[in-house]
Amino acid sequence: MIVQNLQDTTTLHNGIQMPWFGLGVFKVEEGAELVEAVKAAIKHGYRSIDTAAIYGNEQGVGEGIKQAMLENNIPREDLFVTSKVWNADLGYESTLAAYEASLSKLGLEYLDLYLIHWPVEGKFQEAWRALETLYKEGRVKAIGVSNFQIHHIVELMKTATIKPMVNQVEFHPRLTQTKLMGFCKEQGIQMEAWSPLMQGQLLDQPILKEIADKHNKSIAQVILRWDLQHGVVTIPKSTKEHRIIENAALFDFELSPEDMAQIDGLNQDLRVGPDPDNFDF
Question: What domain of life (predicted)?
Answer without folding.
Answer: Bacteria
